[in-house]
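Students often ask why we bother predicting the structure of a whole assembly rather than each chain alone. The short answer is interfaces. A chain on its own may look different once its partners are present, and contacts between molecules only exist in the joint model. In this exercise we take two input lines together and write out one structure for the complete complex. Read the inputs first and try to guess which parts will touch.
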Amino acid sequence: MQKQSKILKLLALGFWLLAFSFSSYGQKDYTLSGTITDKSNGETLFGASIFLQGTTIGVITNEYGFYSLTAPEGSYTLNISYLGFDEISQAITLNQNQKLDFEISEFSTTLEEVVVTAEEPERALLRKPEMSVAKMNIGTVKQMPVVLGEVDILKSLQMLPGVTNNGEGTGGFHVRGGAGDQNLVLLDEAIIYNTSHMFGFFSVFNADAIKDVKLYKGGIPARFGGRVSSVLDVRQKDGNNKRFEATGGIGIISSRLALEGPLFKEKGSFLIAGRRSYADLLLKAAGEDNSVSFYDLNLKTNYNINANNKLYLSGYFGRDAFELGDNFSSSYGNSTGNLRWNHIFNEKLFSNLSAVVSKYDYDLGITAAEFDWISSISNYNLKYDLKYYFSNNFKLDFGASGIYYDFNPGQIIPTSDTSEVNPLLLDSKKAFESGVYVNAEHKLSENLTAQYGLRYSGFSRLGGQAMVDYANDQPVVYNSALGIYERGTAVGETNYEKGDAIKTFGNFEPRVSLAYTLNENSSLKLGFSRAAQYIHLLSNTSSATPLDVWTPSGEYVKPQLSNQYAFGYFRNFKDQVYSMEAEVYYKNTDNRIDYIDGSELIGQNTIETEILNGESRAYGLELLLRKNEGDFTGWIAYTLSKSEQRTPGGNAGGLGINDGAWYNTPYDRTHDISISGAYKLNDKWSFGTNLVFQTGRPVTYPNGQYEYEGLSIASYALRNSDRLPAYHRLDLSVNYKPNRKPEKRFKGEWVLGIYNAYNRKNAASISFGQNIESGANEATRTAIFGIVPSLTYNFKF
Amino acid sequence: MKNYIKLTVLFVVVAFASCSDVIDVPVQTAETRLVIEASLDWEKGTAGNDQTISLRTSTPFFETNTNTAVTGATVTVTNDADNSQFVFVDQNNGDYTTDEFVPVLNQSFTLEVIYNGEAYTATETLNPVPEILNIYQGIEDGFSDEDIELHVVFQDPPEEGNNVFFKFQNQGDLLPTLEIGDDRFVNGNEIDWWIELFDDEETDELESFQPGDIVDVEMSAISTPYKDYLEILIGQIGGSGLFEATPVAVKGNCVNLTNPENYAHGYFRLTEVNKFSYTFE
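Now the answer. The structure tokens for the assembled complex follow.
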């Protein structure tokens, strides 16, 4: 540890020396800084660009709309541009450090229009070394077909190359062949553990409350850590600080309403947004005993203390509930809260301090057996991030964070005196994860820009509990006579005091990317990133379920470590009307766990007896062709990829799962084609469509049968050696805006969507069993959604 | 109990959105294996001398020819304490029988099968089964408030690690229902086990228990390795759906000494068993 911290200090010093080396040259420089906001509602704009015309000096606003640029003394024309907004040009004389805030307005007077121009970062951004990133402004998302009555951020992301779902009826998403738990999902910096409502029918993100979404598929900046596959950074709107505003939608499945407005004489603002499905009310009214529902609530408020200090408070609360008659009831959801303090030290140094809490819990009541089941994970996170705009050529991000985790893997509470179930409380687990990082964005020459950084992450599994010791230190043992993996023999317990660490880990995570501009319209990019993941979602089902529990790394569950290499070619053509992105990647992850045959994960106190440590690797080619402007916009995305894992017996002995050979992960998709298009006929009518084709998900099918206990028993082939049939579907949407009078404040629109228009019965699963009458074996396909029409009326005033 | 927890999620999806149909799917075909169904069940209150062991072979998954009897094998069971040996006689229909078996509670026995020049062996202990305290029918419990369920009440022994195995055969139904339980969450308690059959709403194929139905019940106490084996086997009967564990190989305790790769399906089990029939009112 001592040594590592020394290395860190040296590295930090190195950065500063490097930084200073750039400040040495000549002429006097001055800095211009400030905030860019939307004139209509005061929302800060993330990703707006500020350029000094005729120079290569420019910068893009950060998450809080802040910018800082430094240039030699002189007179310039300043250009400010942002998606769908009027470009501003302003003459400035730079002869001292100055602060300039800008308000820019959308070029149409209507709000949340179908936006026909992609913003800068959605085109192939040539100079920025950032690669493997999908950024979506809420405007773009809203332009895509609305197919289940509501704009859905996750479904939109799945239309991009390298992002897939795991079939219908399942939540979450998979990035570059990674598992769902390898995605770090942040909503206003708070970790979201379950991204779906109603088993993937809706995402937890209410588009009315969201400002922008950024998905890092690779090249994850050093300020993020804790997951090996991707980061989905979702930010909520701050709320309109100019006037009161209401946005909402009334649909067949759910309805929603968002209210926002100024507070404290425009020094602050608030946003409150809610959604609720009402299928449950209809079902109950129809006399149905079973019901399913969800609701969620987004809250945000901010206060401008002065020009250099701003406070934000945001929260999210979401819940899914279902009932099966009187005998089963269940509910689960995320809740988060975040208090942030933006502080501008000076025109070059921006900082943000965040205190975040986040919780996910799953509650199940089983009246029939008279008990309740509860499991949860919660975390408390404190982080401090700074950005130093050293010079036009050199910017430095640095900061630190600490996360305290509390895992409750499960608890049984008998609900009556007559219950035959004994109370049970699995050991709650505690852990602390820390991270420090520095990251530089460095323009090395006119054509070459680099982003390089280092993160050091630490993790401690904390004591306050007893841990089982195993004979020969083997929690899993290979029984060579029977050819199966069995649970190890407990030989005792080691008790760890509250202050003790059961196990501690530390990892350096270098992140590097380079962008080389070949010419005005094309560039090459190269990236490497290493990431560590210390907490794992336990799931031996073909799809993760809401009741799966998380577990920390420790004595037997090792942290996952991944290395990703990516190379890309980016090109804009036809005056940037079209853009093309091509990337290849290779990713390997150490310590990816898989589960022994017959593993029991629910109500399991000793997870280590159910798992084997292995590794995974994924590689692929991603192509994206976009049309960014005009009445017709859209893209074609194609991914060719492979995702495999290998789980040798290791310490347990034996060859391992599938005899230690490589096998497909459930997230392997050889081909994935997504086509998304939007056509604006006129001011009243617009149309959208999605077409998706994916190779079927790897699954395990039978390879034989035999008779036992009067039943036909299937014997199964090697794990994931078969595939479901290919997945494909077509979605359509029509958008109608009646009586558009620009001067009228109330605006409404009708959205008709058809999900899976040709009613493809995509198999969510295929199960094999005996026909109850004939006794013959048969294969039964379960399809979740056939054709699903939806109609929604959206309004805003 | 965890089965309840898992089941709930499954039911929700099935209940609300899905539709299912039978389709043609190509599957792989594994090599044929020997299947040993050596279930020496000692019914409480009988001598337990008559026992049968069945030998068959596995077939491709969709094969409908069920003539898989294995003849010409040598089958013996040995009492590991006194080395008394019981020879099971080939009936030339896949069954091998004896009327001389002497069951002994808590005693371990070894099975030996010699077939095609390969020797298979397994060892297991004969477990005692708890007394049944009460049998009754009810309607309030179970997954449905409208369907009748059968209750079997027994006392779980005080030490942890006891497992029970139930086989319910509703007369007139083609397929039996198998259930197992361990005492992980209910150790030492009086246990009220219930079983309820479901109406299949889509096909009307399977019906819940109706007044007048007769159900044959076998309840036995089983070893933990056999419970682990059955847990996987039963969990995969009827296939593995969306939220169920990925299906895996089920390996029993019959080891091939000659060629370990060529292991046999099935199991050598010895149990004491409660048998009864119940007529629903």
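Check your guess against this: The first strand of chain B starts at residue 19 and ends at 23.
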